[in-house]
Specification:
Elements (H helix, E strand, L loop, with lengths): L18 E10 L3 E9 L4 H7 L1 E3 L2 E3 L3 E10 L5 E10 L3 E7 L8 H6 L8 E9 L2 E9 L5 H5 L5 E11 L5 E10 L5 E3 L12
Antiparallel strand pairs: 1-2, 1-7, 2-5, 3-4, 5-6, 7-11, 8-9, 8-12, 9-10, 10-11
Length: 201
């Protein structure tokens, strides 16, 4: 059961018009959390996770990911509702973005912060994390391989069209977008069925 919490008007982050709320699912080794985090209006969730943000001249989310209206679930089946929680980024396995309608960014602001993007190539990937296997696509330059994409400084890498399998019970979840903690990856490679190679005996 999900309990709807009342708004908290005294929270300066919630009423800061430079920020937008993004609905997320945060997975750690000890619990899962569903709630909302903050990004600058012109920022993607991946950028906020890797770089943090600045609100009211103060850093936001440098080492911890702030969440509000949080439902926490634990392996034993216990759930807990809390107004806010701050999750240490180094303990996160992955963050899934859930669709919620957001107010449109004014056109002038959108143009001011338009992203300069280069064409990317999708690479099928299978990622082993503690307790989870993830399957989906990561993205690199035309010449890059999987190792080139993951062997870099960013803490979180993007995985799209993601299938999440929990190894303890084979339960599945699907997300359009996941940000995966690179430091938690046990291994990453092509899915066995996408290599075109015969199985190794």
């Amino acid at each position: 059961m999900v309990i709807q919490l009342p708004p908290h008007p005294n929270d300066s982050l919630e009423i800061n018009n430079r920020l937008k709320q993004v609905r997320v699912f945060v997975c750690t080794e000890t619990c899962n959390l569903s709630g909302y985090t903050y990004c600058l209006n012109h920022q993607r969730l991946l950028d906020t996770l890797n770089q943090g943000a600045v609100a009211n001249a103060m850093p936001l989310g440098r080492e911890f990911l702030p969440l509000i209206k949080v439902e926490m679930s634990f392996p034993a089946g216990e759930t807990k509702i809390t107004r806010e929680a701050n999750v240490r980024k180094s303990n996160i396995l992955f963050v899934g973005e859930k669709s919620d309608s957001q107010p449109e960014i004014p056109e002038s602001l959108d143009r001011q912060f338009a992203y300069r993007t280069k064409p990317k190539t999708a690479l099928s990937a299978e990622i082993q994390l503690p307790l989870y296997v993830l399957k989906g696509q990561i993205y690199g330059e035309a010449w890059q391989q999987i190792l080139d994409v993951v062997d870099r400084a960013d803490r979180f890498i993007a995985l799209t069209n993601a299938e999440v399998i929990r190894t303890t019970d084979n339960s599945e979840m699907k997300f359009d977008f996941l940000a995966v903690n690179r430091d938690k990856i046990v291994y990453i490679g092509q899915p066995a069925d996408s290599t075109g190679l015969p199985p190794i005996n």
